[in-house]
Amino acid sequence: MFIDLSEVTQRLRRMSSEELDVSGSYQSFLLDLIREGKETLVVDQVSVWLFDDISDPKKLINVANTQWDNDLNADDYPVLLCEQYPNYFKAITTGISIDAHDAVTDPRTAEFKNNYLLPNHITTMLDTTIFKNGTPHGVVCFEGRGPLRQWQSAEIAYAEMVADCCSRRLLVNELWTLQQQLTKLAFQDALTGLKNRRYLMDSAHREISRHIRASEPLSVVMLDIDHFKRINDSYGHEIGDVVLKEFAQCCLQALRAEDSLCRLGGEEFIVLLPSTSVAGAQEVAERLRISVEKNIIETAHHYIQVTVSCGVANVALDKPFSYSLKQVDHAVYDAKAQGRNRVACSNS
Ligand SMILES: Nc1nc2c(ncn2[C@@H]2O[C@H](COP(=O)(O)OP(=O)(O)OP(=O)(O)O)[C@@H](O)[C@H]2O)c(=O)[nH]1
After folding, report:
1. pLDDT tens across 21-67, in order?
2. Are strands 308-314 and 343-345 parallel, antiparallel or unpaired?
3. Which residues are catalytic?
4. Cβ of residue 227 lying under 6 Å from some atom of ligand 1
5. Which of 222, 231, 232, when mutated, tests ligand 1's pocket best, judged by the most ligand atoms within 8 Å of its CB?
């Protein structure tokens, strides 16, 4: 059989040079790629398999298959154990393509004879290695039924290019995941897992314009744990950290999902309350204050109770958010001055 591959090879090379759209799933990208591979090489089935652990592979996981009607859940991916097919695994890890024109007798694929090839009438296979950082990471399997097939060098080159496209997509996917994680970390407070100050300033900006458009009030509550220094001084900094984490959880439980709680720094926290008047925000702050007071924090050797002073302010929609932050900070100052464990409202 002779297939002119120059055009498809061109298309694959162009495709491989394009910006990858990572918004779709990795599996759907692979499926598109191998469906095209199946048509191009006129085979009956194409599948992609990845090693579980590139540095110490124990099994191959089938992550995409042209036989599947729908995306499979990762938990349902079929697997091949390396120890059951030692010759095949050895062949893959050399990185050299397996052009098994007669898969039943080829020493690299004969291990599959009884439990896979014969029952599924697979006669011929072409397997090309997927690399990651120069190390074999998986394999793309082209399988045919019917007459045996002598694989042409252009067909092998094409199949290798499909595997290289998988490699590239894998790499881009990892970079993208890493980037997502970094973005998440940049906006997250490492200790409590809450959003941080950077996130607050960013989201306040967006919330202000949204509330201007909707002509709705936006309020802010600042929470400052009372005498927190004493906690550190009495029990140590580590217990202080536990108290901060427990405090954050306690507040989260007392808030609606749309109210975002952020850690401003130290023992200071902020809640932005969308579509909420100052009176509403005062109620929320009072609820938070009571929840914190009632929450007994259990540590290895101590039961710790803390209280919190809260300031409440209406966010001035015509001013930068830093202005409202100052207002609410003054309100907290008032609450502290009046004896702590209370809510004070900004008078502007
Ligand atoms: N454990 C721990 N302590 C922190 C962290 N960030 C800030 N602190 C401590 O929080 C304490 C804040 O103390 P102050 O600003 O004096 O306030 P306070 O003791 O809470 O007193 P009032 O606010 O006046 O009620 C300081 O001792 C800081 O070292 C943190 O991430 N972990």
Report:
1. 666 667 777 888 899 999 999 999 999 999 999 888 999 999 999 99
2. parallel
3. 267
4. yes
5. 232
330 lines ligand 1 (CB under 6 A): no
- The listed CATH number (3.30.360.10, 2.30.30.140, 3.90.550.10, 3.30.450.40) that belongs to domain 6-185: 3.30.450.40
pLDDT in tens, 226-240: 999 999 999 999 999
What H or E segment, with its residue span, contains residue 134? none
- Cβ atoms 267, 227 nearer than 8 A: no
Intrachain domains 6-185 and 197-345 with the same fold: no
Architecture of the domain made up of 197-345: 2-Layer Sandwich (3.30)
